[in-house]
Amino acid sequence: MAFKDNLQSDLDIFVGVDEFADMVQYVDSAGVEKEIPAIFVEKSDLVLENYAGSETSIPALILKRNDAPTLHNGELFIVDGKPYSVIHVEFKDEFVLKAYLSKDSRPLF
Length: 109
Prior knowledge:
There is one protein chain. This protein is mainly beta. The protein is built from one helix and eight strands, in the order αββββββββ. β3 (47-49) and β4 (55-57) form a beta hairpin.
């Protein structure tokens, strides 16, 4: 059996806190909060260029699609006490998604 055939069952291991993931706080657009396991990538494969011509790589989270099935731009993740807004969601397949993030300046209460 190929890896892709076992992906759904193996995903809990890969995106598990005992392996590569950490628990992060997710706040959806309705204000509902929950903790979910996700892999934080400090510098993702997405590079943005600003008006001055300099480039920067932005952070991202890799998570199970079932943990945030309706993820949208503008929703909030709190990673290690730091707030991040979702600026782009990339659905890798039916099981995995990647959320590209921007540091968020909203106060945490």
